[in-house]
Amino acid sequence: MQLFYSSTSPFVRKVLVLAHETGLQGELERVKTNPWQGEAVLTAENPLSKIPTLITNTGQVLYDSRVICEYLDGLHEGVRMIPEAGEQRWQVLRLQALADGILDAGILRFMEAKREVAQRSPEWDKMQKNAVERGLDYLQTNLSNWNTEINLGVITVACLLGWLDFRFSHEPWRTDRPGLADWYDTFSQRPSMQATVPFE
Ligand SMILES: N[C@@H](CCC(=O)N[C@@H](CS)C(=O)NCC(=O)O)C(=O)O
């Protein structure tokens, strides 16, 4: 399988961590891509020009990270990273949606900060920042409900926190969130996380 990827994308990292945790990392051939440049090799497969994008062994093209993770989770015999049914399934998917949503807001801020100063909107930035802060506070407050075992929800939270360290180290998220910080410090020692640390 071919995975269009970059070493900075937290959504790609979700896929790579899940693949590592389920023994599938050797199945993924990585194709380095810059999605922001609308490279023809990527847009030919994904009209949205977004990564991660996966081409399966049967030639099917899959995106986005949620779809790819669900696909990969069906390819191994181990413990499911997305529970197949029941209350736990919805908890895991909701946690993923929350962490993805915080990432979406963070990436909007990151892109906004790249624009000319005169074009930036402080109100827009504040709105996205508030969403990030509320999301992180929720994770801290509800830690005991979600931090128990590995699944796609906690993987997504870990990739989110790793990305904040990578792109927003000037806005430390650990302040006032000691439980979340402790959890991440332990989780980020996993080989799957160590093997996927973001870099430029
Ligand atoms: N919801 C998508 C988000 C993917 C995404 O936004 N990826 C970024 C890189 S981190 C991207 O490819 N951006 C290019 C663009 O938006 O043009 C997913 O989960 O895969």
Topology at a glance:
Layout: E1 2-5, H1 10-21, E2 29-32, H2 40-43, E3 53-55, E4 61-62, H3 65-73, H4 87-112, H5 122-141, H6 143-146, H7 152-167, H8 178-187, H9 191-194
Parallel strand pairs: 1-2
Antiparallel strand pairs: 1-3, 3-4
Helix pairs in contact: 1-3, 1-7, 4-5, 4-7
The structure holds glutathione.
Folded structure, characterized:
- This protein has 200 residues and is of the alpha+beta class.
- The chain has two domains: 2-73, 3-Layer(aba) Sandwich (Glutaredoxin); 87-191, Glutathione S-transferase Yfyf (Class Pi), Chain A, domain 2 (Up-down Bundle).
- Helices cover 52% and strands 6% of the residues.
- The protein has nine helices and four strands.
- The protein is globular and about 45 Å long.
- The mean pLDDT is 96.
In short:
With 200 residues, this protein is α+β, with helices and mostly antiparallel strands. It has helices at residues 10-21, 40-43, 65-73, 87-112, 122-141, 143-146, 152-167, 178-187, 191-194, and strands at 2-5, 29-32, 53-55, 61-62.
The strand order across the widest sheet is: 2-1-3-4
CATH topology of the largest domain, which one? Answer: Glutathione S-transferase Yfyf (Class Pi), Chain A, domain 2
Instruction: Please tell me the CATH architecture of the largest domain by its name.
Output: Up-down Bundle
Shape: globular
In N-to-C order, the SSE pattern is EHEHEEHHHHHHH
Radius of gyration: 17 Å
Q: How many β-strands, per DSSP? A: 4
Heteromolecules bound: glutathione
What structural class results from the helix and strand content? Answer: alpha+beta
Q: Which regions have little confidence, pLDDT < 50, spanning 5+ residues?
A: none
The main sheet comes to:
4 strands, mixed
Mean pLDDT: 96
Helices, by number, come to 9
Helix content: 40-55%
Strand content: 5-15%
Count of discrete domains? 2
How far from one another are the termini?
24 Å
CATH class of the largest domain: Mainly Alpha
